[in-house]
Amino acid sequence: MLANLIFSFGSPVWTGIIISLLLCGITRALKLLLAANKLRSKPQSTNNEARSKTEYGPDPLGFGAIVTFQGLPLSQKPDWPRYWKPGKFQMTMALRKLDINNWFNYDELFDDEHTKKLAMARSEDSKDYVDYLDGIDDAVLELLDTVVAYVTKRFPGIFRADKNYVYIDHLQEKYRIREPFDFHPLTVVGLLVMDDVYYLTAIRRRGAFLACPSGWRLQQRIGWQLHQIHDPVPLWKEKLRKSMERFFLNLHPSKAIQRNNLVIQPVGDIFQIVPFESNPKCSSIDQVHIRTELQSLTRLPRSQAIIFTVRTYLTPVTILREEPAQLEALWDHIRHFPPDVADYKCRHLWGDVFEEFCRDVLRKNDPHIGNAEEKVEIAKRGGCPLESK
Ligand code: HEM
């Protein structure tokens, strides 16, 4: 019909005029659509504040339940999670309710990791570590206020704040928490916690402080939607996509969650911007490391932004020499990877030395973890039935 309309005028001059008018119209309509979209996605602080108070009550994140940590946690050893289970590989979301006293944790690695993060934030290529697509908006200000309120209440031995600054006294550092900022508020958040911090709106990653990447670069993936990030994960589309999308729609400020993630990596660095599969095959068990992540997801009540935190622990697998029950459970877990999961997790790079290590330490050719009921019991206890016999 469009072609008929254009060509019925016959003359090429008329055709040109009509095409220009149509193009102008389309561009204008697109501009209006974009502007409307922008308005919709821009945090409307006044509306949201009112909504947050009426909808979520006076303490939406449950900070009233925060218990002050007695003393200084900075001499504690990292309490890395050993949560793997023997038996059939299960692809589940594995979410549990967040205990608010377990949102951010600190240990003896804090000072060192904080110093490295500070160098990242100050470096010329700081955008490789921390970037934020929306300038300084309401959501990131809400995030900073929330994290400052949390750390000063839970860990007053490390942090204190006044109207303008948050202080880390033992490092003789202070950061502005009001404008004019000395760092972007997301950077300040990243410097206060041991976790990587991601900020998302409408399930798109809008910003992150990424000090422990696991095989990719921040600039490659900033602005991506969650399904784009997860598409390469085997079984994700079939098993997780629907429930994850439902979960994000229903995430309520008082229902923050935690989950774990496990990677066995063929190198000993926590900062990995090249894909794991580009590493050579391991020739020694000393190269194989367990990367366990403790993740949390929280919706901020006022801006509705979602905050994803990832605390990464990296441990040489040889430490499990001292924990044979855990080693056997991990051995069994890894043996049960379906082939595509094994490929994704690069078992071809570290699997052989790991098998040899398990056989050597446990003095058997295969894991014998017991029957299905026993496996559930073992997972609950974190132990191995053969040990107690
Ligand atoms: C309910 C929430 C979520 C669930 C259940 C989930 C689940 C998973 C799973 C099962 C993997 C594969 C891990 C592996 O086997 O090594 C994965 C990978 C990943 N996830 Fe998530 N995830 C969630 C939220 C998020 C969020 C909010 C982000 C960031 C904005 C994120 C970023 C990633 C990244 C970067 C990877 C690595 C992907 C790759 O290998 O290229 N995830 N996730």
Helix content: 40-55%
Give the strand content.
15-25%
SSE class:
alpha+beta
Mean pLDDT: 85
What are the segments in which pLDDT stays under 50 over at least 5 consecutive residues?
A: 1-15, 28-46, 381-389
User: Helix count?
Assistant: 14
Largest sheet: 7 strands, antiparallel
Give the end-to-end Cα distance, rounded to a whole number of Å.
83 Å
* Number of domain modules: 2
Ligand set = protoporphyrin IX containing FE
InterPro entries: HODM_asu-like
Pfam family, one: HODM_asu-like
Keywords: Membrane, Transmembrane, Transmembrane helix
List the helices and strands and how they pair.
Blueprint: H1 2-8, H2 12-41, H3 45-56, E1 96-97, H4 110-122, E2 130-132, H5 138-154, E3 159-161, E4 165-168, E5 173-176, H6 185-192, E6 196-201, E7 204-209, H7 218-221, H8 226-230, H9 236-250, E8 257-265, E9 289-299, E10 306-316, H10 324-335, H11 339-344, H12 347-362, H13 372-381, H14 385-388
Antiparallel strand pairs: 1-8, 2-7, 3-4, 4-5, 6-7, 6-10, 8-9, 9-10
Helix pairs in contact: 4-6, 5-6, 10-12
